[in-house]
TrEMBL record:
It comes from Tetragonisca angustula. Keywords: Secreted, Signal. The keyword Repeat does not apply. It is found in: Secreted. Belongs to the major royal jelly protein family. SUPFAM superfamilies: NHL repeat. It comes from the Eukaryota. PANTHER family: PROTEIN YELLOW-RELATED, RE55542P. The keyword Signal applies. GO terms for cellular component: extracellular region. This is Bee-milk protein. It holds the Pfam family MRJP. Residues 1-17 form the signal peptide.
Length: 410
């Protein structure tokens, strides 16, 4: 009881407390499918779980990797201005022609399986295609992984790059991407930092020279003691390495976390940009802190360099400023925050945070209930704009006082 009181005081005292607003929600994702028998026959809605969102000016891009069979299109969009809690049909992006894999036709010039995308300042969508079919079922690398850049104004492909064999490993699965344009003079000479979750490792792409290289560190591997996840009454096991990525432009730092860990790490961008490490040399990685439980999504608030994260077991969104060690709980919901797959700070929405939560654990265990809301795209809205008091969402008797410990060194 004391704990709740303490938390409520904390939230009431803080003028910047926030609340969850559900933009779109679905029991299972629904697609505006073309009238083609092959697409219709193969579609398996209970296998379709999104992993990434990107917020455009008028659209929300939704990535749906081919974890299992039955995914119609791996990259999609929905309109942004929708009544709250709508369940819109997903439209294939840029068009169905790019998603022949959804009718069983594998062509490496097309999109195969996409986990996450990012828009740059020129409103171009950078898409990292893993090239891996049915990664949870039988992990079939059918095409080399590639980067595809689409101009979101014309929806045309404007750039592409296929990763050379030497930066890949037999298990390579590219899942997340950061665009670093801090030293860029155009929208092309950017650096990309890409997570290889099952390699495990990280790929760096230098947009100016079209070179790519691989960096690895022991901290990018899954920790065997943290491969079991608890969300509500569900547990599941997955030995996944580095997947959560966030970037502070001001500090020149990339934060990352494997899925199977309770720790958060950082590496300076100068070290990533320096090219392949000479043999035997180590990447200068720092242990930033320890979390109360594992999580996937990470983000940095560019206004104060606070790190946002979502510990699975606590079903919350928390913010932590490593320099001051200040902590805040931005949202808490055992119902709506089951498996937060993405947290996006959105410059195209006045710096509001957008979230994707998916109940991945239920899809993974093939126990998804089509009568529940399983997938939500949400926005964190500052509380003063909201009629409903945040206190309603705090009904759970247990809430940990501390999400993070600032442990320096190893
Ligand atoms: C793959 O798609 C490209 C672009 O549409 C096309 O030119 C090519 O012929 C296709 N390849 C195969 C094997 O169908
Ligand atoms: C942080 O440290 C305190 C005191 O050592 C400990 O009780 C708590 O469990 C730790 N929290 C995390 C998230 O590791």
């Amino acid at each position: 009881m004391q704990l709740i009181v303490l938390l409520l005081e904390l939230l009431c005292a803080s003028a910047t407390a926030e609340i969850l607003e559900t933009i779109a929600q679905w029991p299972l994702l629904d697609f505006a499918l073309p009238y083609e028998r092959e697409f219709l026959n193969r579609y398996r809605p209970e296998n379709v779980v999104p992993t990434g969102i990107e917020i455009g000016w008028d659209r929300i891009f939704v990535s749906v990797p081919r974890l299992r069979a039955g995914i119609p299109s791996t990259l999609n969009y929905i309109p942004r201005n929708l009544p709250l809690e709508s369940s819109p049909q997903l439209q294939a992006y840029p068009s169905w022609d790019w998603h022949a894999a959804g009718r069983g036709d594998l062509n490496c010039s097309m999109l195969i399986s996409v986990y996450r995308t990012k828009l740059d300042r020129c409103d171009r969508l950078w898409v990292v295609d893993s090239g891996v079919m049915t990664s949870i079922e039988d992990f079939r690398p059918v095409c080399p992984p590639k980067i595809m850049v689409f101009d979101s104004k014309t929806n045309e492909l404007v750039r592409q790059f296929t990763f050379p064999r030497e930066v890949l490993r037999p298990n390579t699965l590219l899942t997340n991407v950061i665009i670093d344009d801090t030293a860029a003079t155009t929208c092309d000479d950017v650096f990309l930092y890409i997570s290889d979750t099952t390699g495990p490792g990280m790929l760096v792409f230098d947009g100016a020279t079209e070179r790519s290289w691989r960096v690895v560190h022991a901290t990018m591997y899954p920790h065997p003691d943290f491969s079991t996840y608890r969300i509500g009454s569900d547990t599941f096991e997955l030995l996944d390495g580095v997947v959560g990525l966030a970037f502070s432009a001001r500090l020149g730092t990339v934060y990352y976390q494997p899925l199977a860990t309770d720790r958060l790490f950082s590496v300076p961008t100068t070290a990533l940009q320096a090219g392949p490490l000479p043999f035997g040399e180590q990447l200068p990685v720092t242990l930033v802190g320890k979390k109360s439980s594992q999580g996937l999504a990470l983000a940095v608030d560019p206004r104060d360099d606070a790190i946002l994260f979502s510990p699975f077991t606590e079903t919350a969104i928390a913010a932590w400023q490593p320099q001051t060690n200040q902590q805040r709980i931005l949202a808490y919901s055992p119902e709506k925050l089951q498996f937060t797959a993405e947290i996006r700070w959105t410059e195209r929405d006045d710096g509001n945070y957008w979230l994707l939560s998916t109940r991945f654990q239920k899809f993974f265990r093939q126990e998804v209930n089509a009568r529940d809301i399983n997938i939500r795209i949400m926005r964190l809205v500052p509380m003063q704009y909201q009629k409903h008091p945040i206190l309603n969402s705090f009904s759970q008797p247990y809430f940990p006082p501390q999400f993070y410990n600032n442990t320096i060194g190893f």
